[in-house]
Write a structure and sequence with these properties.
Blueprint: H1 2-9, H2 14-37, H3 45-53, H4 59-93, H5 105-119, H6 125-149, H7 155-180, H8 188-192, H9 201-220, H10 222-228, H11 232-237, H12 242-264, H13 270-282, H14 286-308, H15 319-343
Helix pairs in contact: 2-4, 2-14, 3-4, 4-9, 4-12, 4-13, 4-14, 5-6, 5-7, 5-12, 6-7, 6-12, 9-12, 9-14, 10-14, 13-14, 14-15
Length: 344
């Protein structure tokens, strides 16, 4: 009970949480407007409204319906998926450095996608998604087992270092496949940097069912995640089936991260950065952290996608390069802060 009382003290007041929720929803709406409005052709708010409510087939409205709207939906759901997957992993492992990217899930899913592209050239989009699930799960298990075999040292750092090593190995394997199969993997290099360029309604139709179900199930794990973040003994003492919750949460993480990688490539750092920002803003109650992470993750990836349209204008930069550019300094800051906290 003492630990639960400590948890409640670390949460912010309800009024502050409501105010921040409203602010993030406004940020999401602004991000969505910018995502549709800005590009090679600037589109006004009136045209966007007309395209959504009274489509007349004009050039600008056709661009909205066939290009920018599906890209917006893909970007928003991928951002939400990765942020929620990162928040679940940080609660599950009690490791502030945990995220689908750091634990090798993104790299494993990417390697599986490239394997399928080379060995099964006619694989369907759904087949690719299930391949990404298997690749991500395989990488996560390898990282966990290998870090467990290392004696001594800090478990958080061991997991992070093992994840980076496995991620590097899988990326090298992927690059090797690409080099020896250039004719079959044309266009994959751009996808591997994490990109939402050219995503259409076909991608939306594959992404949405997995994302909606995965996010709803993730939100239902909020209370269990809060208790797990207090430690296994406390969670078990409060009646939680720790092993079953961990296994189920891991499946949800792999589904959310795997389908995102299959559709948009391995976009990094969203799952690492967003949960930290959310906990700083509203506290550590995962019943609130998870939905807030979804909203903020969607907003930030949409803004990163808008920014990616200007870095090498008139050409577009993959959004994964933008998130890496912004997220790497934050990762270094987190690692240094954790080291300083341990010394204190």
């Amino acid at each position: 009970m003492k630990a639960v009382h400590g948890l409640s003290k670390r949460n912010k007041s309800p009024l502050r949480i409501i105010a921040i929720f409203l602010a993030v929803i406004i940020l999401l709406l602004i991000s969505m407007f910018l995502s549709i409005s800005i590009g090679s052709i600037h589109i006004s708010f009136g045209t966007i409204k007309q395209a959504l409510l009274d489509f007349d087939g004009s050039k600008e409205q056709s661009i909205i319906q066939t290009v920018r709207l599906p890209r917006l939906l893909v970007t928003a759901f991928v951002g939400a998926n990765l942020a929620v997957a990162g928040a679940l992993m940080q609660a599950l492992t009690r490791n502030p450095l945990a995220s689908p990217g750091i634990f090798g899930i993104n790299a494993g899913a990417s390697a599986a996608m490239v394997f399928l592209t080379v060995l099964v050239p006619g694989v369907s989009m759904i087949g690719g998604v299930f391949g990404a699930f298997l690749g991500g799960a395989f990488a996560a298990v390898i990282v966990y087992v290998m870090s467990s075999l290392i004696k001594g040292g800090d478990s958080d750092v061991k997991l992070a270092l093992t994840g980076v090593a496995i991620q590097g190995m899988l990326m090298s394997l992927t690059q090797t496949l690409l080099i020896f199969n250039e004719s079959k993997t044309e266009g994959v290099m751009f996808w591997l940097t994490g990109s939402v360029i050219g995503r259409d309604w076909g991608h939306v139709h594959v992404l949405l069912p997995f994302s909606i179900v995965g996010l709803l199930v993730a939100f239902s794990l909020g209370r269990a995640s809060s208790l797990l973040s207090l430690g296994d003994d406390v969670a078990r003492g409060l009646g939680q089936r720790v092993f079953a919750i961990r296994a189920f949460t891991a499946v949800v993480v792999i589904v959310l991260a795997g389908v995102s990688v299959a559709i948009a490539g391995p976009i990094g750092f969203v799952g690492l950065v967003v949960p930290h920002m959310v906990r700083y803003l509203i506290g550590v109650d995962y019943r609130v952290v998870l939905p807030m992470s979804a909203l903020l993750g969607a907003s930030l990836l949409l803004l990163a996608d808008v920014l990616s349209r200007f870095i090498t204008y008139p050409y577009e930069t993959p959004v994964g390069a933008v998130t890496a550019l912004l997220g790497t300094p934050y990762f270094i800051y987190l690692a240094r802060r954790k080291k300083t906290e341990r010394k204190a």
